[in-house]
Amino acid sequence: MSLEFLVPGLGEAESEKIIGIMQECLSHEQETALVLKHAHWNVAGPNFIAIHEMIDPQVDDVLNMADESAERIVQLGGTALGRPDDITRFRTWPKFALEGRASTLDYLRALDEYYDVLITDERNAIKQLDDLDFVSSNIIQDHVQNLEKFQWFMRSHLICD
Amino acid sequence: MSLEFLVPGLGEAESEKIIGIMQECLSHEQETALVLKHAHWNVAGPNFIAIHEMIDPQVDDVLNMADESAERIVQLGGTALGRPDDITRFRTWPKFALEGRASTLDYLRALDEYYDVLITDERNAIKQLDDLDFVSSNIIQDHVQNLEKFQWFMRSHLICD
Amino acid sequence: MSLEFLVPGLGEAESEKIIGIMQECLSHEQETALVLKHAHWNVAGPNFIAIHEMIDPQVDDVLNMADESAERIVQLGGTALGRPDDITRFRTWPKFALEGRASTLDYLRALDEYYDVLITDERNAIKQLDDLDFVSSNIIQDHVQNLEKFQWFMRSHLICD
Amino acid sequence: MSLEFLVPGLGEAESEKIIGIMQECLSHEQETALVLKHAHWNVAGPNFIAIHEMIDPQVDDVLNMADESAERIVQLGGTALGRPDDITRFRTWPKFALEGRASTLDYLRALDEYYDVLITDERNAIKQLDDLDFVSSNIIQDHVQNLEKFQWFMRSHLICD
Amino acid sequence: MSLEFLVPGLGEAESEKIIGIMQECLSHEQETALVLKHAHWNVAGPNFIAIHEMIDPQVDDVLNMADESAERIVQLGGTALGRPDDITRFRTWPKFALEGRASTLDYLRALDEYYDVLITDERNAIKQLDDLDFVSSNIIQDHVQNLEKFQWFMRSHLICD
Amino acid sequence: MSLEFLVPGLGEAESEKIIGIMQECLSHEQETALVLKHAHWNVAGPNFIAIHEMIDPQVDDVLNMADESAERIVQLGGTALGRPDDITRFRTWPKFALEGRASTLDYLRALDEYYDVLITDERNAIKQLDDLDFVSSNIIQDHVQNLEKFQWFMRSHLICD
Amino acid sequence: MSLEFLVPGLGEAESEKIIGIMQECLSHEQETALVLKHAHWNVAGPNFIAIHEMIDPQVDDVLNMADESAERIVQLGGTALGRPDDITRFRTWPKFALEGRASTLDYLRALDEYYDVLITDERNAIKQLDDLDFVSSNIIQDHVQNLEKFQWFMRSHLICD
Amino acid sequence: MSLEFLVPGLGEAESEKIIGIMQECLSHEQETALVLKHAHWNVAGPNFIAIHEMIDPQVDDVLNMADESAERIVQLGGTALGRPDDITRFRTWPKFALEGRASTLDYLRALDEYYDVLITDERNAIKQLDDLDFVSSNIIQDHVQNLEKFQWFMRSHLICD
Amino acid sequence: MSLEFLVPGLGEAESEKIIGIMQECLSHEQETALVLKHAHWNVAGPNFIAIHEMIDPQVDDVLNMADESAERIVQLGGTALGRPDDITRFRTWPKFALEGRASTLDYLRALDEYYDVLITDERNAIKQLDDLDFVSSNIIQDHVQNLEKFQWFMRSHLICD
Amino acid sequence: MSLEFLVPGLGEAESEKIIGIMQECLSHEQETALVLKHAHWNVAGPNFIAIHEMIDPQVDDVLNMADESAERIVQLGGTALGRPDDITRFRTWPKFALEGRASTLDYLRALDEYYDVLITDERNAIKQLDDLDFVSSNIIQDHVQNLEKFQWFMRSHLICD
Amino acid sequence: MSLEFLVPGLGEAESEKIIGIMQECLSHEQETALVLKHAHWNVAGPNFIAIHEMIDPQVDDVLNMADESAERIVQLGGTALGRPDDITRFRTWPKFALEGRASTLDYLRALDEYYDVLITDERNAIKQLDDLDFVSSNIIQDHVQNLEKFQWFMRSHLICD
Amino acid sequence: MSLEFLVPGLGEAESEKIIGIMQECLSHEQETALVLKHAHWNVAGPNFIAIHEMIDPQVDDVLNMADESAERIVQLGGTALGRPDDITRFRTWPKFALEGRASTLDYLRALDEYYDVLITDERNAIKQLDDLDFVSSNIIQDHVQNLEKFQWFMRSHLICD
């Protein structure tokens, strides 16, 4: 940690805690962007074009989330670890298992489950951050609001058929 | 492989070869985007803002390259594998080792070496693709042209100091 | 009615008739905008995203129609009544009954029926307006042209399945 | 309620409570948009154009607020009820009584009173939501910030004359 | 008249009639643009900025109207006469008399009267054109719709004070 | 014909008549777009660049006209036939005979004659549509207004030399 | 003159002189805009489209010049007189005599002569303004620079043919 | 052929060969644009809006391809033949047979077959052009890259259902 | 204080407290904008252009912050005091002492210290505001998030050299 | 002063004189921007919205003026002093005394007086600069032209009421 | 040559050869941009405006070509020599001899001859580059495609007159 | 010289003098654009990217300056000579000698010296033009203002290191 980067009003110990929480969010968000692209490329079936195009703006949103999480980490004096091996090292959640050409509904179902874990983890992160740093908490709150909206998009395809 | 996706005029065996070459390019390009962001976040020193901002448009370019490589794979009947574990599985090149807050010149030197391997690999891919499929070859030729320009940007910081 | 607002060349009695016709169009169009949003929010099923996004530009169009109808009323010296109770007071057509999460096809079917009445009513309005005021008639003619195009969009989903 | 839409980390009972609070905000905001347009059309007097044009961007803002409230409801598994009869059914606040061509100051005074109730109700909603769901609370907090700014605009016309 | 410019399906005699009617509209509209600018520069008083800015988009609209009228004339084989002396030569309506710095309400009252004549004249022109050429009639119908809307803007300032 | 597509308020027999008229407009407009491009490519001479560039926006306009005509046909329950053989099948007007590199004036003269027939035919179509469907009539009226403006552009080059 | 509008640092007598000079520029520039449009509509011949389109941006420029001249007059306490009769009243220069459909070169020649007088007059105005008010002088200097550029455009068509 | 248009470095005989190959590409591409619009208008079924909108950007792309092919022909001294009868005269491939309102999948299947021939033909054209003119070859290579991407879009709807 | 401006739901005493806190933020933010411009103009050295340009977007951000703080004050019934003497009157923090042409690093170091106090003060303001008014607290929370990001930018230049 | 920054062709002594004059302009313009915002926030009364919005573009203009003045100072080798204490130190003109919520006319009257001194001072500065450096003189001439235009806007509200 | 700039996969000797070829292209392209501007300024005659404006976009294209050629040289480790004396030193082609005001056709004829040499030289360069470096070859291939299109534009003015 | 191009109010002898002065400015400005690009390509060192990008907008500015100078020459009846040999023929100032890859500071120092001569020469030109033609003088005054600003940018990098 770089002590000269301590945010005015935040101590060293609590900064380290925040960094730890934020690193996990960062890796999770980076993987989410990769997984969404993975689905974007391999979906197929009668709804192909609608789902293919629905995913891309969400990829942009999630890449921005990762950028915000990472920049908060370095603002607090930490290192933002963002290589593929960093993602697998910090992973505490199940991998995304589906691969190969599959129907849009199969991919949406798999992504829906993946988002269940992602949102639950980030909601837990917020609870811990609330007592540590309102700036970091606000950042992740905005991420959750956006992620829950996209999960609604996906779920709306999975009923009424 | 999905046989119903064979491009008109390309056979099954050669399509599989092209897919194999393109998958390696895809994984390499995806890792490059992650590595560039990793550098973007952790560089520091008197030239911080110039280098920090010089990297972002290149990230966008490399993400588009990965998208083109992946979409070519599925057009040929293959599966584009794009999760973090896919990147590490297909990796035949050295990892990006530098981490933690370091000076702009240190990061540029490490990225320059990383690009040496990336460009050499993609130039080799082109040689193989030239006999198999001009569309895939054209795609990677454009990638190399862009990557060599950015490498020149980086190298220009590393002399005359 | 404000007599000083009489359009040059139009008498008081005919202005009142026009205002009466236009007020019904206004209330009908305002309700249509609310109903379309209602559908936009509650549709579900495998075609969710395509239908969800197809509705929004039509909402904007219909809000502009209501604005044009209302501004014509006040140009003629009348009052444009636009609160929710005004809508229900002037309603001479059947309510939109479907509610709750339902499939895209169910909502499209219900909207198709709702548009049957709306277009029939506005076509009747045009016939009456033709003898009274060509400006008002032209306004509603443009509305019908646009509404019939959107009805075609909806109907095209309801066959061939 | 659709149980398969439960947000990860929120139970069924609390989701129903949130939906109830949000539905009231939704109906209130939908009526506000209609009431602002109603005023936009019928104001008159020497300051006509300035007030006429000041209202329209606020209509757009309030329509977006209603959209956000409604989309949150369906994300939580509820149904967003948005037809005119839904507005009057959920109404617990006084109607907007002013109608007919009236001066800009009369309309601003009536709108100012209408906003008094709207803001008080949404501030109460926030207090209840704070213990239930930070995402919903954040949404309404942003709405109140915007509504209070517009009320200041209106009030600034009502003194010093 | 240039006979080689006769519109297919329109005879020489009726084309001359249409040109005569359109030339009067052209001169009237050109003068209107000059008169609006004249007011734009010389208004004063507490509502100065709102009225000053309300006029400019109408000037642009009226200049476009004159352009459409003139281009229709030459499409029909006539000459569009557009110099200041042409305006005064074809003038059959009262001049705009108000000059010098005056209050916004004085200018609006004078413009309102000027528009009474303008709209009445163009409504008469439409009646004559309806039997001669629907394209020319549609052009002037659109002009009237726009002029009536702006007259309503002006009139709304002249009551309730 | 698809009976479930009947526009509310229009019967089956009259719909068929409208469709027949509109199909001819469609084929004529599609050919016009092809012919304009044909001229765009092969003109030559000292005015080359001005004429070459003047044609392209008209091509876009005519393609939009064909789109509107075709969409009206399917809104009425018909099939819009748009392949090259459909164009030649429905052709009741003379072909465009000029080919090979020729001067700008030669091409403009040939296009001027081609437009004579096109405009005459669409003016006849309007007369028939006026008693059948005001929406279709309004659509073709707008087309004629635009086509006559472009014919004026062309004719203006053909005199005074 | 409105004494309360005297620009700080400029006396009443010199302000009146400046206003007189600027009024003549205003009328001259307003007529120029009308004359350019007059030419824009009536030119014909093989270069039609190029000349027709070359004039329009200059009309916009000249309308802006008139606007700047007029606003300077009222800033100095004067009245900007802008109706057609004001133009003919203040006219000290020859009218634009050419009318009817004529070739592009004829119109350019006539406009070139018209600009000779216009530029000479505005250059004289600058000489007088230099000793009175640098702001007004700067305004007209910019006008002359633009007018001379457009005159060069016109002249370049009149040689080498 | 116009000999004065020979590209520097290309002889007359080879230019004629290239022109012959490019004319066939031109006619094929022009027909493709017509066929895509034909499908755009007549598709129906639950995926209507997604397929309807997916086709339009491809129409624009194909129209640009035809433009590039035609402009290359005239650059080489040939005539670009672009009327409907030219398309049918140069046609060596099967017509597009499907007509009438049909489901999205039926149209996609028919278009997929049509693209099989189109892509095969253009890939053959490239082989011949490679020895004649790299510029023409590069143009068609870009066309094939784009056409194969759109075929993948279509094919992705035809499996997994 | 203007009692008629009390926000619905906030009492007079607490409004005064909030206004006091917000006025200090306002003055601090206004000075910050002046100080950043002061640095923007006087920095020098080999990194001149990068630092010179990095500051300007932050100036815009801070001017918007001051605007939001001031508008909140008047929404609460207070007066927003914004002249230079108001800034020095409310100043409880050390002045910015560096002046004259100095190196980029000297200016960044001085600005970094200045931001230490600014961020600490605004973090304290938030703690007080949390119990008084969530709208005001949210406003300052957004300011702090932005200020901390810019401080990180500056600090990143001050290590590794 | 930094001698190495002397503009080619300007001596040291005259550069110092220019810098002294420009510094006063800079401080005066910076205060003007603060004062305009101060008014923007605290005006009230029936014309509130028109005046509130009229001020903001002028603030942007004045901030740009200050930027130009300051950059000219450093181009000449001087230091641009821009903190609040610099403004009060260089102030030779009366403070802006009005504070608290007041009517639009009161604020406009106070600003009108403030502009009287500002314009007089800058006109004096131009007289001195004319003999020293045409670049600096041109810069301030442009500022005065813009300031006088805005003063006319303000004054136009203060008569005819 | 800077050895540390060798592109990965290219040796020193071949890099020097490529640099030599590219330098000649660079000088030729730089001169072309100057020559085109020279013509842009001095053309005259009845087609003045069309030719004057046709040249400017080509100037921008050619400046971009020179930029690409130069950046490729430095990427390969060479120096891009771009001063006027460098152009004349590397010149192996005939100068552009036409000067003074001349007709549009004279200038187009002279430019057409100049392009004959330019295109022949770059086509020769491509043949040499094909065996050395596909990136450099692709760059010049794109240049030739664009230059041949512009030559067609010019030639199309030189026949049919 | 073309006498028919004499600007109204300027004699033949003085026009020739102005043309001589402006031609030297033109050649000097054209060389400056080439020299700036030359530097843009060959700079290197730790500040590479910032300096590389700082130069490009100045190139655009200087190209526009040359365009204005050249267009003024032809407006006055002269010929604008713009080929590389014209630049070297009219050169009365020292060449730009630095070549090869060199550090950013070396290039900035060489450019700073080059600008010393350029600005001194253009300041002298203004003195001569002031007595001949205010339009030409204003054009070069604007050029100097811009060139001095860019020289300040360069100089700011050369101190404090």
TrEMBL record, chains A, B, C, D, E, F, G, H, I, J, K, L:
Keywords, comma-separated and alphabetical: DNA-binding
UniProt GO molecular function: DNA binding; ferric iron binding
Segments forming domain Ferritin/DPS: 23-158
InterPro entries (UniProt xref): DPS_DNA-bd (IPR002177), Ferritin-like (IPR012347), Ferritin-like_SF (IPR009078), Ferritin_DPS_dom (IPR008331)
CDD domains noted in UniProt: DPS (cd01043)
PANTHER family listed in its UniProt record: DNA PROTECTION DURING STARVATION PROTEIN (PTHR42932:SF3), GENERAL STRESS PROTEIN 20U (PTHR42932)
The name this protein goes by in its record: DNA-binding ferritin-like protein
Organism: Bifidobacterium magnum
